[in-house]
Amino acid sequence: xxxxxxxxxxxxxxxxxxxxxxxxxxxxxxxxxxxxxxxxxxxxxxxxxxxxxxxxxxxxxxxxxxxxxxxxxxxxxxxxxxxxxxxxxxxxxxxxxxxxxxxxxxxxxxxxxxxxxxxxxxxxxxxxxxxxx
Length: 133
Fold this sequence. Notes:
There is one protein chain. The protein is mainly α and 133 residues long. It has four helices and two strands, in the order ββαααα. It has a single domain, classed as Orthogonal Bundle (Frizzled cysteine-rich domain), CATH 1.10.2000.10. InterPro entries: Frizzled/SFRP, Frizzled_dom, Frizzled_dom_sf.
């Protein structure tokens, strides 16, 4: 059972509705109490999502601002590698326009192991690649 302070609600943030889940839970990882509050906050990043500076930016932001609703006690966080992929793709563009990567989204806050959203690339060796000729 979810703690009584957490509530699952249908996912309605337009940026996130095409992701492979349809309910979210609040308060979220940044302690937004409602989806409406989270939507206002996530929308500041919509230009980054539109230009697709990282293929992972949308999934990363949505799992922070509109986490998947589960029966676990806390929302599932994005994996650190998902964060790093989003940051590495988008931070230089943000800096170009005078913005810094937000402290609350610093990748050190996110797990490198255990249950998290995204490919956790730190725990698996890269696959062997061969070229067919």
